């Protein structure tokens, strides 16, 4: 009789996503040190439009809020498909992991010769590189998983560092977020509302997207104070209101009164996003899904002409 052998899948569901999200403390540190690349970004005082699709659009929102609130100049974030870039901008910053997204390429091609375009991309061997005036590549943050984790936050880390932020504390928080125990309720909740203030509104939108992509969960996202203007009606026991950044005064009591779980950690918003990414990964696995290859999604959206 021969002894039975057990095949171990070298790539279990979500293996790439797990490895990539866990590497974020290291990729943020590398991005923060890229001073030459950061110098290619718009100078203080320039009017800037930041564009992207999906996750990259949400990172554009966070960068725009940070840049303008820090006094670096007017900064607007647009979904590439709905951007208005004929408003006298000095530069357009295009964020795209793949460098092949149709809407981004169309917009950048449309401003050639009139507005300086800077690309922030994961894969340097892509069409975007030939369309922009300057390109910042982050190949060490590129990903195999369709679900974005580290490219998005690494791009934002570079953008934050370019504004003069010291990311040491954020990187420490990220190391905590990678391994911190997750509350069981976060893994089994019926519904999630992600809330942010200032630059973390983009983070909240991204957290909601991650759970939808990886686990097909019911998620919503809002500026934190907007939650009171209707969305709080869905708060109930077994549901989660997750706040990034500093919660508005009184919001905890209002959510507690509904019986919903109020989730908040006093850590950097990007680091707290890692915790949400981990929830998305574990829920996807629990539902028998492969978070690396979400339903109906591809790594890059390339539209037919």
UniProtKB/TrEMBL annotation:
Residues 36-177 form the SIS domain. One of its GO terms (biological process) is carbohydrate derivative metabolic process. One of its GO terms (molecular function) is carbohydrate derivative binding. Keywords: Isomerase, Repeat. Gene3D superfamilies: Glucose-6-phosphate isomerase like protein, domain 1. It comes from the Bacteria. The keyword Zinc does not apply. InterPro entries: GlmS/AgaS_SIS, SIS_dom, SIS_dom_sf. PANTHER family: GLUCOSAMINE--FRUCTOSE-6-PHOSPHATE AMINOTRANSFERASE, ISOMERIZING. This is Sugar isomerase. It comes from Leifsonia tongyongensis. The lineage of its organism: Bacteria, Bacillati, Actinomycetota, Actinomycetes, Micrococcales.
């Amino acid at each position: 009789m021969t002894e039975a052998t057990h095949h171990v899948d070298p790539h279990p569901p979500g293996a790439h996503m797990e490895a990539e999200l866990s590497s974020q403390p290291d990729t943020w540190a590398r991005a923060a040190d890229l001073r030459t690349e950061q110098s290619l970004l718009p100078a203080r005082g320039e009017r800037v439009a930041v564009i992207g699709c999906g996750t990259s659009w949400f990172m554009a929102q966070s960068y725009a809020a940070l840049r303008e609130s820090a006094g670096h100049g007017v900064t607007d974030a647009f979904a590439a498909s709905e951007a208005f870039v004929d408003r006298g901008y000095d530069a357009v910053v295009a964020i795209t992991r793949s460098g092949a997204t149709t809407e981004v390429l169309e917009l950048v091609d449309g401003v050639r010769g009139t507005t300086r375009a800077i690309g922030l991309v994961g894969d340097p061997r892509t069409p975007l590189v030939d369309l922009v005036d300057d390109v910042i590549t982050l190949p060490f943050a590129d990903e195999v998983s369709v679900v974005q984790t580290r490219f998005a936050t690494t791009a934002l880390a570079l953008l934050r560092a370019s504004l003069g932020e010291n990311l040491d504390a954020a990187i420490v928080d990220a190391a905590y977020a990678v391994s911190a125990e997750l509350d069981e309720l976060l893994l089994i909740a019926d519904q999630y509302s992600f809330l942010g203030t200032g630059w973390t509104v983009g983070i909240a939108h991204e957290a909601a997207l991650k759970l939808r992509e990886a686990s097909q969960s019911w998620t919503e996202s809002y500026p934190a104070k907007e939650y009171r203007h209707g969305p709080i009606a869905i708060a109930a026991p077994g549901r989660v209101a997750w706040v990034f950044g500093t919660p508005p005064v009184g919001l905890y009591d209002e959510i507690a009164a509904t019986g919903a779980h109020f989730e908040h950690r006093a850590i950097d918003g990007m680091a707290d996003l890692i915790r949400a990414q981990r929830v998305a990964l574990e829920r996807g696995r629990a539902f028998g899904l492969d978070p690396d290859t979400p339903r109906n999604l591809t790594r890059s959206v390339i539209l037919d002409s």
